[in-house]
Design a protein that fits this description.
300 residues; alpha+beta; 2 domains; 5-stranded antiparallel beta sheet; 3-stranded antiparallel beta sheet; kinase; transferase; NH2Glyco/OHUrea_AB-resist_kin; Kinase
């Protein structure tokens, strides 16, 4: 079968810091996929579409008919760190790794098959947030000694460099976000393994468990950072409601209380992450998305 990368992946890799490097990986991707399938002795069924923004996922089957999913990501996406996180969770709250023997050869992840078309976004909002909180409780575990994941302080320090160059229209919010980042990373905080990119769309229906998370961008730090991305889930719906700023603040408080997280730290990280995402969207020319993110940050 043809392994054409979905357009969503092509667009996203075109916005990375080194698009030429990622274009080279995309060009080699059909051959990489064929070789990865052969190494693992699995048969391709179809490419998952629209797929993710950082990887190609091929739905496959073993010769005995057992379903699985093969995920291929460029080296810059650090699939080795994703593998380490998934192995650390061991299938508790997260998708299970079926075979990691060939990972060092091609960076591929052979994972249990979930239902990619059924995420928490298919549930009513209140039920989705309840299930999301239950999933996060399973993921937040001690990282173990000598772990190789970066910390929240390290990741946000890198992101802060880009925020210092924010365009004039985002300058005031960027300054506030930078002050928040400095304050929140200036004092010791929790050290737990975090998903790093957790939201409703990253939690899929499974057979082994009702809901399992996928696609971590793992790091180590405090729970408030991980929960912050979930606060702005279904952002267009939030912006469209009459509740506006008061609704956003209530959501922060509700999620913080549900998971025993400090409200002020959650609000702070929610602002920082929204402004950082909005600044990246501006740089990529995704103006509508940027405006939504910056408006949301201003509410808080």
């Amino acid at each position: 079968m043809a392994f054409e990368p979905p357009q969503r992946l092509v667009r996203a890799l075109g916005e990375t810091p080194d698009p030429a490097r990622d274009a080279d990986w995309l060009e080699r991707l059909p051959r990489l996929a064929e070789e990865a399938l052969a190494r693992r002795e699995v048969l391709a069924q179809r490419v998952q579409a629209p797929g993710g923004r950082s990887s190609l996922v091929v739905l496959v089957r073993y010769s005995d008919g057992t379903p699985a999913a093969l995920k291929l990501a460029p080296p810059a996406a650090r699939p080795d760190l994703e593998l380490a996180a998934l192995a650390h969770w061991g299938g508790f709250g997260a998708v299970r790794v079926l075979d990691s023997r060939h990972h060092e050869e091609d960076g591929g992840l052979l994972l249990e098959r979930l239902h990619p078309e059924v995420s928490l976004r298919s549930l009513p909002e209140a039920k989705a947030l309840l299930e999301a909180c239950g999933t996060l409780r399973r993921l937040w575990v001690a990282p173990g000694a000598g772990h190789g994941w970066e910390t929240v302080a390290q990741r946000t320090a890198r992101q802060a460099e880009a925020l210092r160059k924010a365009p004039q229209e985002a300058e005031a919010l960027a300054a506030q976000a930078l002050a928040i980042q400095e304050e929140l990373t200036g004092a010791p905080a929790e050290e737990l393994l975090l998903h790093g990119n957790f939201r409703q769309g990253k939690v899929l229906a499974g057979e082994r468990a009702p809901w399992l998370t996928v696609g971590p961008d793992p790091l180590v730090g405090e729970r408030a950072y991980d929960l912050a991305r979930l606060v702005r889930d279904r952002l267009e719906d939030q912006v469209a409601t009459s509740a506006g700023a008061s609704g956003a603040r209530r959501r922060v408080n509700k999620l913080a209380d549900a998971l025993d997280v400090d409200r002020d730290r959650l609000r702070g990280w929610t602002v920082f992450r929204a402004v950082e995402s909005g600044n990246r969207a501006l740089a990529a020319g995704r103006r509508r998305e940027a405006e939504l993110l910056l408006e949301f940050a201003a509410w808080l």
